[in-house]
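Shape matters. As here.
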Amino acid sequence: KTTLRNAIAQNRIAHGYIFSGQRGTGKTTTARIVALCLNCEKGPTDRPCGVCASCVEIAAGGAVDVIEIDAASNRGINEMRELRENVRYQPARDRYKIFIIDEAHQITNEAFNALLKTIEEPPEWAVFILCTTESHKIPATIASRCQHFSFRSVDFNDLIARMREICGKEGVEADD
């Protein structure tokens, strides 16, 4: 979180990220938050306003310039060629066109090869965020051109403490 926040605050945005870790660690959620930070009208900022048109649309999942792709069902070369064509066009309204590719490890080798050229030489407005539970399946040619962030589970006791705090603030009674 701190590394991403500092990079955004200093306007040192990479064109490719890999978010890896086990299920439920917040990879896709973090990718959406990065999209908010990059495309907020006050941004790029490490503290998006949450009220501008961009923030509202991204939070609702309906932003034209934030494209989420489930690679589990869109893993082939044709889908990557379509994505490559889509990258060429500038964002409709926002600063960046952000491609969040979930389950990226399921992309076929041929599809990764089709994506490689775009990740090697992306247009200035394109940002790719590959979310995966199996980072070792991302080809080295792709991984070497991305910043890699490994996500891990929150300690169970920390999770209980945070839930206790939230329940207290919300006036909800719950046992541990």
In short: The CA atoms of residues 23 and 72 lie 14 Å apart. The beta strands are 16-20, 66-70, 97-102, 126-132, 147-150. The chain is about 40% helix and 15% strand. The helical segments are 2-9, 27-39, 53-60, 77-87, 109-120, 140-143, 156-170.
